[in-house]
Amino acid sequence: MPDYTLRIRRFDPASGEAAYWDEHNVELGERNSVLDAILKIRDEVDGSVGIRCSCQQAICGSCGVRMNGKPGLACNTHLEEAAARGHGVGWNPGDSDGTIDDGAGSVDTTPAGVIEVEPMGNMPVIRDLIVDMDAVHWKKIQRVTPYLVNKEPVPEREYIVPHENMVDVTQSMACIQCGACVSDCLSMEIDPLFVGPAALAKAYRFVGDPRDAEHLERLHDLSQDPHGIYDCTHCFNCIDACPKGVAPMSQIMRLRRRAGTDYGIVDRNNGHRHEEAFVTLVRDYGLLNEAELLPRSYGGNSWWGKFHPRAGAELLSSLSTVVTGVIRHKISPKIAMFGHKLDKRDLGSLKRIYGEVEGRDRRYELNLYVSGYEDEPEPDREGAPQRTPPLEPSMPAGEPEAPVSPPDKSPTFPGPGEDDQTGADEGADTSRGESENS
User: Fold this and answer.
1) 414: left (phi over 0), alpha (psi -120 to 50) or beta
2) What pTM was estimated for this model as a whole?
3) Which of 48, 324, 395, 420 has its CA 20 to 30 A from that of 113?
4) In terms of DSSP bridges, do strands 70-73 and 64-67 run parallel, antiparallel, or are they unpaired?
């Protein structure tokens, strides 16, 4: 049976001592989990090791820790995988020299094959591997109103939600609140007041739900908050960290599009204006023109934006940064003044792509976390049979058809990008009834 070395970060605030590393050797199968090893150490060697755990099935999200610098679920990470992983693999490349640091320094000295386990980041440590989720994670979840505010009047029966709407929010619904994304969020390291990836993914779960009555209020609140949706820096850490594939950063980007493009919310953070300027510059020049980006973000999305008073103030405030960049040869004055040049043929190809995407009647951005139907064939695969989804996809084949039910009085909400046709349908039904009576 393989022998594994675990270095556990220990800390007891009641003792008054600094954090330290506690090293143990365990004999377990390579397919046993890191949590199995920690519990074995706690049961057989040191009963004071603190870790929070419950289901051991990657469902409850309690056992979130950092293993060799990467957050994850201890119960869902095999010892073999953890031992083979270099420290910080994914976004913080390790530079281990193969020596062991007995102190609590910040220098990575983890030798190859050693599994270093420490508490998650961006949250205060209660003891050992246990962090205070209430102080950060759950406080931010409560910040986004984590429940559905139903529309009025309440229907006589259940709400009827279009299938594609449910597929749309399924990805954000998969979150198990483990806090792994919060642990590795770079924005939260710099700005602890940032609402955070987990809470914003939760916010989209209701913004994408047609039954919710406060889409605009939610989006306006998170757009105007300087620590809201525009405080995300696109570092992709939360996407790499999430053990359930929720992709919190993708949900944040969708909140931005819903707020700025669909609802036309002009945020005081200039977030949406900045994104619009970025997209326009790439479309017009083929490459980003940094000298134009700042004035267009503050003064208007055109060449004349730089003459706006707000743009002038921002340009003056950034002058010292520009001068420093020129002195250190990080900025070329010529490129800063006139931007990059792209071959006309390449620029034409890029504009055709823009034209195709912007010419669509609706925006295609469903979260394809699940297809929604079992055994659905791939339509693009050669020779694949084409079929339409069954009316009742959950009904097993071979069962007799269910009797026709009375007309449903439940409201049916439009899908993403669809207009509400309820009034039109009711009018059509009324006209058909009058024709039949006559």
Assistant:
1) beta
2) 0.77
3) 48
4) antiparallel
